[in-house]
Amino acid sequence: xxxxxxxxxxDKEKIDGRYRLVVAxxxxxxxxxxxxxxxxxxxxxxxxTLALEEVASCAVRILTGEAAIKARxxxxxxxxxxxxxxxxxxxxxPEDLTEIEKDLxxxxxxxxxxxxxxxxxxxxxEEGSG
Length: 130
Prior knowledge:
Blueprint: H1 18-33, H2 47-56, H3 65-129
């Protein structure tokens, strides 16, 4: 059954118009593309069609009014907290990098000294043997 070619029957109490249906379907399709798990088993292959099926069958909850505003604020808060955590991790990272850089400089300095001693020994052993 091709859902797109048939008229989409929706529950008017849960979805109050075609615009809301389209917006909800677009958001659900994006979530599916980003890796969200389908809410129902379907034979369709396209994620956009699956999203439309899920929204039309009310498998996906659509928030409106105050509930939508609260959910959006919570999502912003969660993403804000996530950004703060990332910033804290980035602040801690330079300290670790400076320690690694110091160790690397010491290693490279010792290696260059060792290589230069080997080159000097090599020069003198070649001249002495020749």
